[in-house]
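Milestone 3.1: sequence recovery, worked example.
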């Protein structure tokens, strides 16, 4: 079952990975066999590096306008194709209330809705901050290769006081648990330019190929461990002979 929440995702937090796969193994090896300390550092480092591959897009690298006309914001479509993500109906919004990391965010100016498509290796965790210029509720559907995975609606106006919830800027929405191929976003009244997202973060839960330096570090650790073991055996044999 997929999990949807409005809190900062912690499944792949760097501090958690470092503590679980680097700090703890090193401390354990130090207590048990100090000579294996070097090997522990190498193995734990490679394991931590292969756990996740995270990408953050804050849209600040794109110009706000196509030219000098303020009524024509820069459309966002395939500018981030190299990172494995495409946008439909998106446009740059600059210095507005919903932007989390100024100056830019992404709005559905060319909407009235917006789509986010992931390509290549699909992410298993996607998070972003969502706001609405009209304080409407924003409806977000997450799809995988086999169809709809999950749906969520942000706090805001939903047509009546009974159905609405108090609006908040910068609502953090997170999908996790399965491969995600597409997100569809729509405001309650399907009003163009109502929604804005920022700090799109997605994580691939795949093992990456270790860097050559990491491989060399691990190999050096194994050689050192083998040499020390031979010395220990030789020392033990000499003591027994006496």
């Amino acid at each position: 079952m997929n999990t949807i929440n409005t809190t900062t995702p912690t499944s792949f937090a760097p501090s958690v990975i470092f503590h679980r796969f680097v700090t703890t193994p090193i401390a354990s090896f130090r207590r048990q066999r100090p000579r294996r300390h070097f090997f522990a550092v190498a193995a734990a480092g490679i394991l931590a590096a292969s756990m996740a591959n995270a990408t953050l897009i804050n849209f600040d690298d794109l110009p706000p306008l196509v030219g000098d006309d303020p009524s024509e914001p820069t459309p966002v479509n395939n500018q981030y194709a190299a990172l494995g993500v495409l946008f439909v109906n998106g446009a740059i919004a600059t210095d507005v209330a919903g932007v989390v990391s100024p100056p830019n965010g992404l709005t559905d100016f060319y909407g009235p809705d917006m789509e986010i498509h992931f390509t290549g290796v699909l992410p298993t965790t996607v998070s972003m901050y969502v706001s609405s210029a009209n304080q409407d509720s924003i409806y977000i559907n997450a799809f995988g290769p086999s169809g709809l995975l999950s749906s969520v609606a942000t706090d805001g106006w939903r047509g009546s006081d009974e159905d609405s919830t108090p609006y908040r800027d910068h609502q953090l929405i997170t999908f996790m648990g399965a491969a995600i191929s597409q997100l569809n976003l729509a405001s309650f009244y399907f009003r163009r330019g109502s929604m804005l997202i920022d700090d799109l973060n997605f994580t691939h839960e795949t093992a990456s190929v270790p860097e050559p330096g990491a491989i060399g570090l691990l190999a050096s650790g194994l050689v050192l461990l083998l040499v020390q073991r031979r010395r220990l055996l030789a020392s033990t044999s000499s003591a027994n002979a006496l």
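DSSP finds three helices and 13 strands in the chain. Helices lie at 14-32, 37-49, 212-241.
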